[in-house]
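Progress narrative, Year 2. Work on DUF58 domain-containing protein from Rhodanobacter denitrificans advanced from sequence curation to structure prediction during this period.
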Amino acid sequence: MNAVASHHADGDGRSRVALAELIALRARVGRVRMAPLLSRAARSGQQSSRLYGRGMDYAESRVYQAGDDVRRLDWRLTARSGKLHTKLFQEDREGCLLILLDTHASMRFGTRARFKSVQAARAAAAAAWYAVRAGERVGVMAFGHADQLLRPQAGSRGALAVCGALAEWDAQAASDRLEPLSDALARASRVLHGASRVLLVSDGFSCDASARQRLLDLGRHAGVSVLVVADALELAPAPPGRYPLEHAGERCEVLLQSERQRSDFQRALGAGPARLGELAQSLGLRWNSIDTTADAFDAVSGLLGARRPAR
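Result:
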């Protein structure tokens, strides 16, 4: 896949992803003061770091690189190969973020500012730029109507590739294909490619009973964070009135009057986001919830550990 999507994939930033908007997030990430990386013990499963010390699990050995601690040389492999090798432990693995993006038809819904699908893409792009600035590789896996994988890459090239993929996938015609979250998480476990952390971006409507165990399984290999993307009508009862709705290219108008009518409507609409948020909370995962008007960058940087930019 090309690093940047073709022109026909660019949208208006409301019902379709605007590639230029995703790329522009790079400037905002550049103003963020990066938080120090935490050890696995300190982060309870979040973000890997390069710590030297004892009590860490051996991961692998690689050819010696300038600056490596000579106390950690793998003398047996060095003797066998004739080349210096350094032992790497669990905390030394190269940082890598895998973004899991929900592309179900339910994401193409919004009553304010933009569709959830567009907001999710903005969040994913912000995460990609943040990851590469932190020195990590970044990749993205789509689940739902799109079944796509962009393998992790490093540097600006990696973030640009993610932005291009987000725009290309969003430009595809919507379908009714369903993929339970548990299946998507199982697929993610098979394609981690050494990812040290995973960011799940979803509205939660695909969240099924088996997702709990899949999240636990995934958490044994990487730190998992969850960003729940919802429309304002899914998060709180709307004031009385007529509401024009847009879903999967179709428009309709809903009349909401009584308090009970508005509460029932909100509970039905908000079942997915509520279910995923409750699951993340019960598992002790880092998670956040945003609507389609929120600043996706702030939400993502909070989850991934960035500090606010200096004023």
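The first strand starts at residue 58 and ends at 63. Residues 116-133 form the longest helix (18 residues).
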